[in-house]
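Slide 14.
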Amino acid sequence: MKARFGEAWDRLFGPPVAHRGLWSPDGHAENSLGAFQAACAGGYGIELDVQLSADGEAVVFHDETLERMTGEAGRVRDRTADELGELRLAGGEETIPTLLDTLALIGHRAMVHIELKTPYGEVGPLEQRVHEVIADHNGPVAVIGFNPYSHAWFADRYPGVLRGLDSYSYRNAEHMAPDQRKAFAGLEHVAIARPQFLALGLDMLPSPKAAKLRAEGMPVICWTVRGPAQWDSVKGCCDNLIFEGFQA
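Slide 15: predicted structure.
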C-alpha cells in the first residue's frame, strides 16, 4: 500500500485528525477555513465534509440543510457556490468554502479526509467533481464516506485514490431496513466498497469483523473521539483517531 499511495498511506497512522477542522463553540466554526488553518498550525490531519451546490461545485459543509450553521432556510444543494459563499457560518464572519479553496489553503501541510455526502441513488456527480479538484492538489488526501457505492465508483474509475469506508452501529438508522442495518453494522458492505481502510464510529468498537480485517492489513480509524478516556477505551483496536473538543 505504501508503494501505491505514498505519503497518504503513511499519514493514515498519524497525526490525529481534527473533525471538521480544529473548531470550537467559542472559536472557529466547523468546516471553516479558520478551523482548517488552526488544524494545520497544530500539526493535525483534517476531516471535512463535501456536497454539491446547485451549479455542481463541491462545497465544504456537513448538514443537508443550512439552518443550524447559517440560520438560513433551505438545502445546500438548492443554492449556487457563489450564493453559499455569501452565507456567514455561525459564530463568526467566515463563509462556506469550496473544496477547491480549502485545499488551496491547506496545501501540503495536512492529510485531508474528504467525506463525500453522497445521497443513495445519486452516485457520480459529486465524486467526479471531487476527483477533478483533488487531481490537481499537491497534498495527501483520502476520500471517505458512508455510501459504499460511492467508494465503488472511485474503485472502478480512479483506483489510485485512497478510500476509507465510514461505518457505525446503525442502531438508530430508521431510514434503513432492519436487515440492511444489521449488514452494515457487520461490515458486509466492505465487499461493495472495496476500501483500503475503515473509519468506524465509537459505538461499534470493538468489532470482531473490523479486527479480522485489520489483522489482514486494513487500518482502522476511530471517530469521533471527544476525550482521552474515550480514546483509551478503543485505541487497542485502532490505528488513529478523528477527534474534536480536546487537544489529541
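Speaker note: The CA atoms of residues 15 and 149 lie 29 Å apart.
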